[in-house]
Amino acid sequence: MNFHHAPNTFVGQVNLKVQHLDRALAFYQQVIGFKVLEQTEQTANLTADGKTTLLSLEQPENVVPKHGRTTGLYHFALLLPNRADLGRILKHFIQVGYPLQGASDHLVSEALYLADPDGNGIEIYADRNSSGWNWNNGEVVMATEPVDAESLLTEGQGESWTTLPADTIMGHIHLHVSELKKTEEFYIQGLGFEVVNRYGNQALFISTGKYHHHIGLNTWNGVGAPPPPAHSVGLESFTLLLSDEETRNTVIARLQSIGAAVKEKNGSFVTLDPSGNRILLRV
């Protein structure tokens, strides 16, 4: 399955603001299994393969706790290489006593849900083979059913969990947004994604290359939800990886044609979705 390679557009990195960097690092290393790639007094880049940053943490000056009922991060999602890895990390969570917020069988994938000490949402999941995904009128069939935890644990028997597998990637991101009409225009007409599932009038799941979703968008924090304060815990930005410069130039032109601003600084291109979620456009 090559849903996270060119020519697809997908999430490569998520950048979070935390209240206490040391506390966050302890969690992400000991509970999740990240390795530290680079670190300063107020920032840290985390990796699974020792080369690629998947998650960046920052402790801003005068940081305040996470605000509820705002736009921003619902969760970021780490995609494990296989189901056995998901079983191993489930056993690890049980052994260390870290509380899960949920576990779901989505038909296309199986997922565990939790939050870091700052309340940033995390999904850890493994995909089912895409040959078994069902599509109906252009939409992928997903559900929220109970995970077969016993089967997962059985499959994950053997080697204990120590670190994230090197092949772990950022599978998708799910965002709280303030409304869906302009949001859909921004992500579909501007960024070039396709809608692959509509969850009533409250959520959209979008992707490239017929993945079940690279981005989720919902209004579950309320239509008209405001953005969080700039110095609060939560999402700082996320990176979209585009296949080449030509594709990025095309995306920038499309964004500008619908009235979205794209700013360039030191070779980096940044845009904001209609809810203020910050997106870095990288090749």
UniProtKB/TrEMBL annotation:
Q: Which domain of life is it from?
A: Bacteria
UniProt entry keywords in alphabetical sequence = Metal-binding
Look up keyword Metal-binding and say if it applies.
Answer: yes
Pfam families membership? Glyoxalase
User: Locate the VOC domain: which residues?
Assistant: 10-127, 169-283
Entry's InterPro entries? Answer: Glyas_Bleomycin-R_OHBP_Dase, Glyas_Fos-R_dOase_dom, Glyoxalase_1_CS, VOC_core
Q: Which residues form the signal peptide?
A: none
PANTHER family linked to this entry: CATECHOL-2,3-DIOXYGENASE
Question: What protein name is recorded for this chain?
Answer: VOC family protein
Originating species: Ectobacillus funiculus
